[in-house]
Amino acid sequence: MLEIVDIHKEFDGLKVLNGVSLEVKKGHVVGLIGPNGSGKTTLFNVIAGVYKPTGGKILLDGEPVHGLKPDQLYRKGLVRTFQIPRPFRNLTVLDNLLLASRNQRGEKFARVFNFTKWKMQERELVEKAEKTLELINLIHLQDEYAGNLSGGQLKLLELGRALMSDPKILLLDEPAGGVNPTLAMKLFAKIDELAHLKNLTFFIIEHRMETLLNYSDYMFVLYKGRVIVEGKPQEVMEDEKVIEVYLGEL
Amino acid sequence: MSKIKKKILMLVAVILLVAAFGAGCAEKQAPSETPSEKPTPSEQPPQPEVIKIGVLLDLSGDLGAIGQKMKLGAELAQKEFDSLGGIGGKKIELVVEDAATDPAKAVEAMKKLVEVEGVKVVVGPMTSSETLAVAKYVNDRNVVIISPSATAGKITELGDDYVFRTVGSDDLQAAALLDLMKSRGYSKIATFVIANDYGIGFEDYFKKYVPEMVALSIRYDPQKGDYRTELQQVKDAGVDAIIFVGYVDSGKVVFRQAADLGLDEIDWLSSEGIAENVMFEDAKTADFMAKVEMIGTKPSSTGFTYEKFAEKHRQAFGSDPDLFSDYTYDATMLAILAAGTAPSYDGPQIREALKKVSEWYNGATGYKLFDENGDPAFYTYNVWKVVKTDTGFKYEIIGHWAPATGLELIP
Amino acid sequence: MPFETNLLQILFNSLISGSLYVLVGLGLTMTYSLTKFPNFAHAEFITLGAYIVYAMTDILNLGLISGIIVSMLITGFVGVACFLMVFRPLANRKGTMVHLMISSIGVGIFLRYAIQQIWGGQELHFSKVHFAGYNLGPLRVTSLWIGIILTAVILVIILHLILTQTKLGKAMRATSNNPSLAQASGIDIDKIIMIVWFLGAALAGLGGFFKAADTRIVPVLGWGILLPAFAVIILGGIGSFYGMIAAAYILGLAENFSIIGLISLGISTDYRTAIGFVVIIITLIFAPTGLSGINFSKWFKRRRPHEGEVME
Amino acid sequence: MAFPIAYLLDMLVFTGIFGIMALSLNLEFGHTGLPNFGKVAFFMIGAYTSALITLAGYPFILGITGAMAVSAFFGAIVSLPAIRLREDYLAILTLAFGEILRLILKNEEWIAGGVLGLKGIPEALTTTSFKSALYGHLIVVYIFVVTFYIFLRFLEKSPYGRLLKAIREDELAAQSLGKNTVWYKAQALAIGSAIAGSSGGLYAQYLSYIGPDLFMPVITFAVWAMVIIGGVGNHKGVLVGALIYQIFERGSRIFKDYLQIPIDPNNMMFMIFGLLLIIVLMFRPEGLIKEEKIKLL
Predict the structure, then answer these.
(1) What SS3 state is found at B384?
(2) Which of C305, C308, C310 has its CB closest to that of A82?
(3) Which pLDDT does position B30 carry in this prediction?
(4) Dihedral sign (CA B246, B251, B257, B261)
(5) CATH number for the domain formed by residue range(s) B3-167+303-367
(6) Looking at the partner chain, which of C4, C133, C259 has a beta carbon nearest the beta carbon of B229?
(7) How far does B38 lie from chain D, in Å, by closest CA?
(8) Are strands A226-231 and A218-223 parallel, antiparallel or unpaired?
(9) What is the pTM of this model?
(10) How far is C230 from chain D, CA to nearest CA, in Å?
(11) C-alpha angle with apex A128: A124 to A134, nearest 5 degrees?
């Protein structure tokens, strides 16, 4: 599904990614862990088209996608969330979700005047958005401005937007950060379900690896811009290098 | 969907209503608003107790300093009438507004004068762009304007309307300057003009009539304040003379930098824009102007009537009259006389009265008969020269120019 | 029309123009790089500086040097006052960059008309100071022009030393590069920002004096030079001290040599004013990071993109 | 003194003309978040285009259409470099663009009369008397105001308008949700410029004269003040802002006659104006009328 080959990235001579190579298989929930400053978010930003890689290749379904802009990647089915949520603050929660939907014809200037058509479509999308909101427990806040949500709720909104966009692969940057543990568990269960029932692919950054343990199929550990360990969650957890890295951080 | 349709329908209805109402009002009011079209003597507004004269000058902005002094000219005219008990027993009231050297503001201020104050005759505006900007409005509204200082040739083209001016077109002054240049035997000149209607008008004239003489032409931005390289180019070009057209503010900057660059070996010619005593307040500028024996032209203000005006000005304000304050004085006098002698305080009649008054009025700047375009029919220009005297500096009159007589230099 | 152009003089003129841009632009680039918004009221700091020198020398009969010092102090305090009373509260209330820009226009309008109210709209001159002109080989120079160039050079050297050799300078650079990191490493960034606003406005006042001495004192003095000053700091790369200095002289050269081109092509020399604007547009289209994106980035580095931020 | 009805109507005409400008800036800045500091440039382009077309003998409607088309074209041109830039760069770039354009129109006489501009521009409606002409102008201008208001309200209540707001709120997030933000920003600038251009066309036919001195950067700042004071993001608000600005400008001219103050009234007005901007930004940054919560269905 997603193949990353020898990705390098440097800022003003500072090397952040040092030849990262990894593969995310279709229908898998794949975790990316690593201590602070290991380059996780930078890698996400490179994959999602926010940064151009200094070197290396990114393949989506075998097709090179490095250097594409975020909106082009979205159209190819790759959607991401942000570690620090980026909601549309002065729009309602519902609108935030609706904006994530694909092919709303009313978003084209040439078609906006045919309002009977886009209104019909909008009704369907609202239904879909409401279902998603129920899933992420935000249905009661659907008419609230996104700017008024709490940190944890914003994280959920991020996830909701990503789910709303019918992606093939989702890049989630710490989806459970700041979310209360019970709900986080429910979320991961849902992710697990989506992955295996709907054949969606998830690539998830988590700082605390315990959370991912039960729900991921595979795991990569990033350290100083390199993948140092990969494997099944249980194997990774027990790997000496991983323990060392995390202890080193402490 | 239906909601939007309803709204649109509502709006269309409102628009139609307003339109119908407006048209109705217009129909009803049309006759009384424009008595000139159907003059019925019984409906004529009676003469008011006080005769209001609008004064629209640039009291702030780039020309604020000049405008403030021109205002004194208008005040002097009013005082004179008031000391005689007004005109026909009616007092004169000046309604002064500031156009802030901005044509948009001039339009707005003009409308305030006319619509709110009910003024039918206005002295002003000062600049040509302002005059062009208000021309349409005052013609539609039948309000007489007399500009004391709008000198662009284009204003002549406005034709027979409500726009008058007491000062001649720049094209004439440029002709005077050209004769002066020829009398001095220049073959190559440089023009150095302010980049606005005033300066560019002169540049265009020289480029049109003596293109072979103009070796290079410079337009300068009065805000820039850095003219060294422009001046250096003039110096390097080896011209016989430099024709400077600008105002006091930037003129001082140009002359100081010219002095610093040693441009004192070329002849300098200029126009009325800098022919003002405030130029001498800055010692360096004054020294430079005297050293190069700067000469130039300005709309004439000499002779017995001017001396009388100047004396009155000194008595009233303790200072010599400055640039265009004589023209403002004459414009105000004409406005008062026209409004006072018109059968009613009403634009078209004031306009006719103004034409009559202008046939005999002899003011600070001479006879002010208007031609068919509202321009003065007679104009003479003075030729001045900057000289250093025991007490300071002054503009000495060394000759005159008129279309009929050409250039006459005092020997 | 072929004639010999005194290129040396034009080069020298460019040096004067460039130095004036350095003088008025230094303060602007300082506050811009620290508070991250273009302060349009900087124009009025420039104007105010000129008027206060005038008040000191021509009205109170103080000497020129003490007049300039007093002017720099007062202008500096006005700058800090504007920052404390308007810009900081606004930024604390989550005002965006555009809000800050508009508020600076509001401050500018207020100050300009307050100045006009106090000193009037008519142009003024420093009557107590005189600058002699003389020939220096093929060059015409005056003591003022040499003063402008020397002051610019000395100022640049002093600021260079402050920025590289002192604790204050290092703190300033750190605050400009990454305020939160600077704060984390124990720098009192509020104090630093206040010092920079003081210095920025004081330098504007000094630049205003030189600009006014070279021309005249009017309420629009600063406004007339503000856009070229923006051109300079954009060409230099915002926040780049050395880029801005190079850009000032590049603009000086471009403006002065453009006159030759415009004259020989028979085009209006009024377009000289447009050079700065064209510089702005070309720079922003082709190299939005300005000269600093190319080199000179040793001291004031280009802002490093933080995670999640779009690179330009 | 009779009630100055003509003055009031004239004020409403100006409110309408500048209200259209405020609406266009509201689309660009209020909704899309593009700080266009070159508003006056598009106003000028519209005024000159429409003046040249109508002076050549073509009808007003063609003039205004041309004005909108040419302004939209320039808006799109400016957007090319501008939309990839940070807000402050965009502001300074558009400001510079307006000044360059004014310099060109001033110095190149062959384009449109140079420094003295164009006079005798035909009015939209031919009328017989001053009063009926004024009502005619009022109707013409408000047909445009109402049309643009409905149009912009419709956009605001559509997925298109929602998308523009999303770009304003967070461009990167919008991109990550598949929106080609660059393209939408270009569209917003083009539409906004077209609207501003029509306002210029109305201005030209109302004054019947235009010259480069009428298009100083101060107009841009005035339009910004209308939007900021009236209410960023609210179309009703910015129209109210335009009215407030007119009342303020004209009111201060009238009130100075009744107020005896030791301060020059012109200076006073500008000082108050500067303060007002700051106060609104500090204490009511959303402006007089807040942006409303939009429901599409």
Answers:
(1) strand
(2) C308
(3) 38
(4) positive
(5) 3.40.50.2300
(6) C259
(7) 12
(8) antiparallel
(9) 0.88
(10) 8
(11) 145
Helices within C86-178 (DSSP H only): 88-92, 97-119, 143-165, 167-177
Cβ of C301 and A12 within 8 Å?
Answer: yes
Q: Report D:229-258 residues touching A (Cβ under 8 A).
A: 233
Distance CA C152, CA C173 (A): 21
Q: Which helix (H) or strand (E) holds D148?
A: helix D130-156
Q: Kindly list the residues from chain D whose CB atom is less than 8 angstroms away from the CB atom of residue C267.
A: 107
CA distance D293 to chain A (A): 8
Within its chain, how far is the Cα of C180 from the centroid? 27
Contact D200, D43 (CB under 8 A): yes
Closest to D190 measured CA to CA, from D76, D35, D84, D81: D76
The residue of B55, B115, B161, B224 whose CB has the most chain D CBs within 10 angstroms, and thus the best one to mutate to test that interface, is B115
- Cβ <8 Å between D214 and B104: yes
| DSSP class per residue in A40-63 | HHHHHHHHTTSS--SEEEEEETTE
Q: What is the location of CATH 3.40.50.2300 in chain B?
A: 3-167+303-367, 171-292+381-409
Using CA atoms, how far residue C47 sits from B81, C20, C54, C111, C115, in Å, is: 43, 14, 11, 9, 8
Task: For residue B162, list chain D residues with Cβ-Cβ distance below 8 A.
Answer: none
Calculate the dihedral angle through the C-alpha atoms of C218, C75, C279, C244, rounding to the nearest 10 degrees.
150
Indicate if the pLDDT at residue C301 is higher than 50: no
Q: Å from B277 to nearest chain C CA? A: 14
Model confidence at D6: pLDDT above 50: yes
Per-residue pLDDT for B29 more than 50?
no
Can you tell me the mean pLDDT for D26-35? 92
Model pLDDT for residues B288-330, shown as the tens digit of each residue: 999 889 999 888 766 788 888 888 888 888 888 888 888 898 8
Q: Over range D221-240, report the average pLDDT.
A: 92
Q: Does D261 touch chain C (CB under 8 A)?
A: no
- Does the beta-carbon distance from C308 to A83 stay under 8 Å? yes
List residues in chain A touching B: CB distance below 8 A: 115-116, 119
State the fold for domain B171-292+381-409: Rossmann fold (3.40.50)
Q: Which residues of B122-151 are buried (b: 16+ CB within 10 A; e: fewer)?
A: bbbbbbbbbbbbbbbbbbbbbbbbbbbbbb
Longest dimension (CA), chain A: 62
What per-residue confidence (pLDDT) applies to B3? 57
CA separation, residue C163 to residues C160, C173, C300 (Å):
5, 7, 9
Burial readout B248-270 (b: 16 or more C-beta within 10 A, e: otherwise): bbbbbbbbbbbbbbebeebbbbb
Q: In what order do the strands lie in the sheet with B241-245?
A: B214-220, B189-194, B241-245, B267-270, B295-299, B381-388, B393-402, B406-409
Residue B64 identity: G
Tell me how far the alpha carbon of residue C258 is from its chain's centroid. Answer: 22
DSSP category for residue A210: H
Strand B393-402 and strand B406-409: the pairing is antiparallel
Q: What CA dihedral angle connects C259, C264, C268 and C269, to 10 degrees? A: 10
Looking up tokens 């610093």, which residue turns up? B260
Q: Confidence class of residue C22 from pLDDT cuts 50, 70 and 90?
A: very high
Q: Which residue of D has its CA nearest to B60?
A: D266
The single-letter code of the amino acid at B229 is: T
d(CA A159, CA B59): 63
Q: Which residues of C touch B288 (CB under 8 A)?
A: none
Does residue B196 have a pLDDT over 90? no
Cβ distance of D291 and A92 shorter than 8 Å: no
User: What ipTM was assigned to the predicted interfaces of this complex?
Assistant: 0.85
Instruction: List all chains that touch chain D, counting a touch as 3 or more CB pairs closer than 8 Å.
Output: A, B, C
Neighbours of A161 (CB within 10 A): 29
Q: Residue B370: its pLDDT value, please?
A: 81
> How are strands ordered across the β-sheet holding A218-223?
A78-80, A169-173, A201-206, A29-33, A218-223, A226-231
